[in-house]
Each structure stands twice: as structure tokens, then as C-alpha cells.
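Supplementary Methods S3. Input chains for the assembly prediction are listed below.
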Amino acid sequence: MPDLPEHLKKPFVNMLLAAADDKLFLGHRNSEWTGLGPILEEDIAFSSLAQDDMAHASALYELAGSIDGRTPDELAFGRTAEQYRCAAIVEVPDEFDWATAIARRFFCNHFDLLRLTRFSQSAYKPLSDLARRLVAEQQVHVTHVDDWVIRLGTGTPESHKRMQQAMDAIGPLAPELFEPLDDLKPLVDAGLYPGSDFTMYDEWTATVEHVLGQAHLTVQMEVGSPDDRGGRRGVHTQYLAPMLDEMCEVYRLEPKAAW
Amino acid sequence: MSKLREKVDLVTGDLESPPEEDLKGYVIFTQLKMGQPHLYAGYLDAADDDMALIFAREHYGQDQECVGIWAVPVEAVSGTDAAHPASHDIGGVEMYQVFIQARRGAGHVSAETVQARSPAEAIEDAQRIHTDPSKYYSLWVVPQHLIASTGPGDVIWRYSDQSYRLARGYSKEVREKWTKFRDEGSLNEYEKDDLKEAF
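Predicted C-alpha cells for the full assembly:
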């Protein structure tokens, strides 16, 4: 195991947790759809992709745990709400509105593709090795969600209207994915998280707007002030705690059990 | 089960907008290893080729390790079986993919390609290659340009460990946990507690 400078371990683990937490809750929210998908085959596909998100979260938790000694289960289920680093967009319920579920995935999937690409260039080899295969898998998610966004955006007047409403509702939450994590700069400087958030943001908005253009949809997004504390710094929506309670119900019965 | 789901209003009865012509049937073939033939995997419904491939990737592509997928509209399949009658209408010469079903109940497997002016002609050509009717049960032919295919670099089966999706992966995992549990000597303790509670 290559050495990580002692003072960078905490922010590095924090960064991995942000990525894993996003995946965990996105996967959980999407798994809520199992059995309720709009058509049978999409139900299977959506559940399969949600499983993938869980697999990605699990791999990232394992890596974080290899640095700070906690198990993936402890990291996934053994923290209090304010110790999670996920963004608000993965917390809010979609009320089982298909357009909302797709809009949420759309912003998150494109963000994750870019974040994982930066991970794949990390100087920390265990991360870059892991991220290279996650990037390839993430591409599957992007292909799936782009297809739906364009299909619904350009489908019937009804599907366009509902997709646009979902973009209006979810879009404003999306830039919060970019809320800066604590002590990120030393990681960037050390090549552990190469690239810059500004470049990544430009790339993300360009891609997102390009696809939305093809889908005849628009989105209003504004970057918040760096002083607005959100999910990346442990300030969460009202929806996280109940979701956690539900997800951790079994784990909390016997935290040391190997399920 | 998520508590949120208890609040979902499930729609019953007829849909507000009728689904006619929204979806069509596709036959899916999967290739398990590079260079190997494509094997019949099953059917699915999709709006078009792109959607059929996306669905097939997540459904039939996750049944086992898989490197390639073909999606063929059901109506593009002609065969020697009654379910897929072959048109005799002569058109331009085109390439047909032949699929062989070895015996009744088996899945069709991709074989050679033939050039023909109609599906019926393609079947005749294929039968000239497969002259021994005891060696196969039925033949399918599909115009090659109607086969939608995943690309060579497309990820289908994931690189991440997904063995839990498979029956064998699941039983392996349960066995490992059981062995660990037993080896820890906790079995006696467990049985003791269990008996105490039972009586």
C-alpha cells in the first residue's frame, strides 16, 4: 500500500466518502423504484443500475476504510447524519415521478463521470486503478440516462412538459454537487485529486446543456456562495435522517454482524 | 421495503394514453466471449433499437459474463418455423445472418452469413449449407443491416465484482458466511440460546 502523507489522510478519506455517499443514496433512492418502473424492462434496467451504484459506493468505502481502518459497513451505515458528505440532490425523494428520477440521475451521472475521471488520474494508485474501471461502468449509466432525457424531452407534448417540470425542480439543486469539500486544495496540489473544480464545472455544464439542447429542454442553475454550507460539509436536508433510519434498521440491530 | 412506497398511488385500470405502437418486440442474442457465436437469450419490448440495446445490456447482459449483444426486431426474423414465415418478395441482394437451432427447445445460435434477394432465398441458401436436416431443428435468417449491435468497447458485464447477481455467487457468499460462523465456535452458543428460547 503506497503511503499517503499523514496530514492528507483525513481530507482524502473525506473526499472518497463524498463520492461514496452520493452513490449510496442515489442507488438507494433508485432502488425504491424496483417493481414500479414505467415498463418492465426499464424496471430491470433501473434496478440493475442502482445495484451498480451500490457496488461503486462499496468499492469506494472499502478504499476509504483501508486508509482509516473502518469497515465498509461502518462507513455506509455507522455514521450520524452530519458525518455524511452527500449532496442534497441525492437526498430528496422523487415522489415516484419518473421524470424527476431521470432528471436526478442525469445531473448525478454526468457529475460522477467527471469526478471518477479525475480519480482515475490520481497519484494514489489504489484510487486510480479502481476509478479506471468505475469510469468505464459509469459510461453505461450516462448512455442510459441521456437516452431517456432526449426521448422524453422530444417525445410527446406531455412527456416534454413533465420532463421540463422535473428539470425546473431538480436543476437548481444540481450545482450543489460542486460545493467545495473541506481541505480539498492540498489534495489537488498533491496530485491526489488532479484538475480543478472550475474546469470540471465548465465541462459538466457544457455536457449537460448539450444533451438538454438535443432534448429541447432548459435548466436554470446558479452556483451558490462558497459560504453556503450544504451536504459536502455535513449540513443536510430534512430527508437524509429518515432515509438513514430506514437503511440502517437492520445494521443497527447488530452492528458487528457480517450480513 | 421502503416506507415511501406505502404512499405510492398505484394506477389501476386503463392508461390515459393508450400504449399502442409504443413498443415492439425484439429478439436478443448475447455473445459470451469474443469470437464466439451469438446465442439466443430471450425477448424484450422496446421503442427502438437504442432502447432495446440499453434494456438488453441490463437484463440479458447481466445473466452471465457477456461481451456483445445483438437486438433484432421480431418482425425481421424469418425462419423455417411457423412462427416466422419467410417472404418470397424479391428485392435487392443483401446479406443475411443465419441462426441455427440444433434441436427442439434449444436456443438459436448465429452461424454463417449468406447473400440473397429475399428471406425465402436466404433460407434456401442456408439449407444448401446445412444439408443434413437431422443436424438441426430450425433455421432463422435476419437481414444483417437490421441487427442492432453493441460496440466492441462497450461495457456490458461489469468490471466490479457482481458475482452476487448470480445464483452461484450468492450461494458461494452464503457458504463462506456459514463456514465462518461455524468455525468461530459460535454454533454451540447459538444452539444453546435457541434451545433456551424454544423451551
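The interface with chain A takes residues 2-5, 8, 17, 23, 44-47, 50-51, 54-55, 57-59, 62, 154-155, 158-162, 165, 177, 180 of chain B (CB under 8 Å). The mean pLDDT of chain B is 86.
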